[in-house]
Amino acid sequence: MIGDKLRNERERQKLTIQDIAKGTSIRSVYIDAIEKGEYDKLPGKVYAKGFVRNYAAFLRLDADAAVHQFTEENHPEDVAAAMETEERLQAAEERTRNEVRNKLATGSDFREHVSESNNRQNAWLIAVIVLLVAGGAYFLFAMDDGNTASKAPAKQVTQSAKKTTSSKPVEKKQEEPAVKVDGVELMAKFTDRCWTQVVADGKTVYEGTMEAGKSQTWKGKSKVVITAGNAGAVELSVNGKSMGKAGDVGQVVEKSFTPDGQADAASSKADKKDSKK
Length: 277
Known about the structure:
This protein is an alpha+beta fold. The protein has helices at about 1-10, 15-25, 30-35, 45-60, 65-75, 75-105, 110-150, 155-165, 270-275; strands at about 185-190, 195-200, 205-210, 215-220, 225-230, 235-240, 240-245, 255, 265.
């Protein structure tokens, strides 16, 4: 079992459960549950995956392999679904390659490319000619204007300079207001390691461990939900508005944001489970 593998490696490195808890921000009660295979004591499947990934990474094991083994042991249906998706993707890629081969075989793609290249070259040539003609006209006009100006008396030039100096200063244009963000734009800054999952409009767009000093932005049309395994290490802002830290250090928190920038739901699943004990 993955729990036995993690415990054996921890003991081999002469580390205690408290050492792991301090280094990963995972509570010791959850680390003990993982090692004993008591996954019903964890907040849920998503959090369990994150805890296993962080635990394995801290021990310098293959985190992806550890999560895969955990999934095979406890959620084989997820593994089957992932394999089916991979097979479909491979089939789609094979169809795409075949279509490309057929186009190259007929030569139609090559002829289209050559035609487009010739059209671009002709357009560039016309643009260069137009610029040369315009530049020549401007040069002739400037030469003629310079000769006329040299014949004017110096006094007139001085008066014109005075008029220019005494003219009213040009009013500065008011800065245009910032463009309002269309939908939800969530930015997260991380001050410590934190397992994170982000779901935008019902689709998981990120799941993994963020390192200290990293920052990331995600966008959605109607809703963005972020789940943080170490909420005290995450500072959030929505549509440019600061939301502060997601929670306390070691706390597992889920927050949901809508286009108005307000969190319409916030919960700490880990803390709720502890409070029932």
